[in-house]
Amino acid sequence: MHLLLENNHILTWILYFFIYAFIGWIVEVVYHVVKQGKFVNRGMLAGTICPIYGFGSVLLTYLLFPYRDKTLILFLSSALICTFLEYLAGLILDKLFHKRWWDYSDNKFNLGGYVCLEFLLYWGVGGIILVRDIHTSMVNMVSLIPIQLLMVVDILFLIIFIIDIISTVQSILKFNRKLKLLSEMREDIYKVSDKIGEEVADRTLNVMDRSLLISKFTAREKRIFSAFPNIKENRYRDVFLELRDKFDEWQSK
Q1: DSSP single-letter state for residue 44
Q2: pTM to 2 decimals?
């Protein structure tokens, strides 16, 4: 503990992470308010942070702050670093949870739908603003915080962050199990319907929709559908799209 108190460098960067993750969340909210005309609590987590912005900002400021007066280096490095992080995050989340949380497949010059040229340019400009204009003020502001208070704040934020991650992962896994159950039920019903006709199967599915699972959206599921309107399910696509349609119907009422 004594060594940690002496080395406030680590504590400072932890706080930078949470501040920039919060700023990133604000940027996402503003962007989607402008794009969709309504507030959406963006991000996988329930809290008001987007961790990828925190990681990206810390990495950019740590590596590129010495080059803050070299605009071209800042732009190119920021664009490449952030695009790589976005690609890596999208790929990992896709493989872990079998969902594509954002998709640039409709954008020109995209790579696997995870990244695209348009946002590469945004990351380059954003990196310049962050490293050259924002981070100096951030350093001056955080330096005013006493080390003991800084440690308490970091620990508190880390505890909340870890709890949020665990809760989010559990909710997504539960949602995946729900999709699996619905998919298996759907398959069983259609096996029977081959013998007695598609009409009976459709009626059975409609009854199941209303009375069992479809109408029961959890708070986390509502957030997933609201925050990620372009999310794509890889394993249980048909059932997921059906849930998506039911959610849109529910939301429009």
Answers
A1: S
A2: 0.77
